[in-house]
Automatic annotation (TrEMBL):
This is Acetyl-CoA acetyltransferase. The keyword Metal-binding does not apply. CDD domains: thiolase. It comes from Thermobifida cellulosilytica TB100. Belongs to the thiolase-like superfamily. Thiolase family. Residues 257-379 form the Thiolase C-terminal domain.
Length: 380
């Protein structure tokens, strides 16, 4: 049976929307991690058969097939093509899936999976704004017939989750505080140093607030009157890039590569698009069943903290040990550069498995449209 291995995983620091990385063109963000990936693995870049890159807001500086322009901006061979994909927040996790599937199918041996998003330069929703500015409907007639004209947004979806699972504002804020505490500890201990390639004078993730407190969070206004959500319990608007190299067993031998992890299982699920953020729950159940594993077999989980109720509900429904979930903090503290986050989380996951000696890792994240990816890997 064919195998797919992660043989390299690197990321930039996750920067804030007004930090130094915000001035870096998205293609140059991508070029930076691609060059570093090639350098760290020692692979002949001409042997790379495709570059699959996630990016959500593909407009302006993030248009014109960012995967291709980033690869060329890195000075890498013109013979390697690139494709840019959008599965909303899970775009670069899907890039990992597509790269692994190409290898597992036997049709490819070396594929780069990457993600880039500069939310400081290209604001979230800038592509949707085109429809608004030109008086065009965002959704077509079929959607309206099925779901009506109710608000469809991640913010409403997160609030609906709070109401469904009965989470209070205080519970959300305690979760958010722990995310900052874990992230601050990870940075202080240098846990991310091996996976980060500095850029623009930035060498650490910028969004962590080690001095935040429940009192400070309690002073914030809710996103809407009567809601449990505040900015403190949501992911941060961010800038970042990440890249991984996926290789076949044959490529590992031919190119003298060192596997970091083996791809065990790839799974997807859809759920209610109005709730939008709940699909990691059914997707995880599918992945574990297909892999023949239980949640107790998973040593480290990275689930994107789009909003606090997402990982909270996932933990409650799946029965996971909270200590194993986002052990080094999540997007509430570290930021969420949309199309880059999937690759960032997988990079963190692989490095954390090696740091701790864990065997199995699981990654999942909620995505627009009520979708989710789940990837299970085994440390090599």
């Amino acid at each position: 049976m064919a195998e797919a291995y992660i043989v390299g995983a690197v990321r930039t620091p996750v920067g804030t929307r007004k930090g130094a990385l915000a001035a870096v063109h998205p293609a140059d963000l991508g070029a930076h991690v691609l060059k570093e990936l090639v350098a760290r693995t020692g692979v002949d870049p001409a042997a790379v058969e495709d570059v699959i890159m996630g990016c959500v807001t593909q407009v302006g500086p993030q248009a014109i097939d960012l995967a291709r322009t980033a690869w060329l901006s890195a000075g890498l061979p013109e013979s390697t093509p690139g494709v840019t994909i959008d599965r909303q927040c899970g775009s670069s996790q899907q890039a990992v899936h597509f790269a692994a599937q190409g290898v597992l199918s036997g049709t490819q041996d070396l594929v780069v999976a990457a993600g880039v998003e500069n939310m400081g330069m290209v604001p979230m929703g800038a592509n949707v704004q085109f429809a608004v500015d030109n008086g065009l409907p965002v959704y077509g007639e079929g959607w309206v017939q099925r779901y009506g004209t109710q608000e469809i947004s991640q913010f409403r979806g997160a609030q609906l989750m709070c109401e469904k699972w009965g989470y209070t504002r205080e519970q959300l804020e305690r979760y958010a505080l722990e995310s900052h505490r874990r992230a601050a500890a990870a940075i202080a201990e240098g846990r991310f140093d091996a996976e980060i390639t500095p850029l623009a004078g930035v060498s650490q993730d910028e969004g962590v607030r080690p001095d935040t407190s429940l009192e400070q969070m309690a002073a914030l206004k809710p996103l809407r009157e009567g809601w449990a959500l505040t900015a403190a319990v949501a992911s941060q608007i961010s800038v970042g890039a990440s890249a991984l190299l996926i290789a076949s067993e044959r490529a590992v031998e031919e190119h003298g590569l060192t596997p970091l992890a083996r791809i065990v299982q790839l799974a997807l699920a859809g759920d209610d698009p109005v709730y939008m953020l709940t699909a990691p729950i059914p997707a995880t159940r599918i992945a574990l069943k297909k892999a023949g594993l239980s949640i107790d077999d998973i040593d480290v989980t990275e689930i994107n903290e789009a909003f606090a109720p997402v990982p909270m509900a996932w933990i409650d429904e799946i029965g996971a040990d909270p200590a194993k979930v986002n052990p080094n903090g999540g997007a509430i503290a570290l930021g969420h550069p949309l199309g880059a986050t999937g690759a960032v989380l997988m990079t963190k996951l692989v490095h954390e498995l090696h740091r701790t000696g864990g065997r199995y890792g699981l990654q999942t994240m909620c995505e627009g449209g009520g979708q989710a990816n789940v990837t299970i890997v085994e440390r090599v």
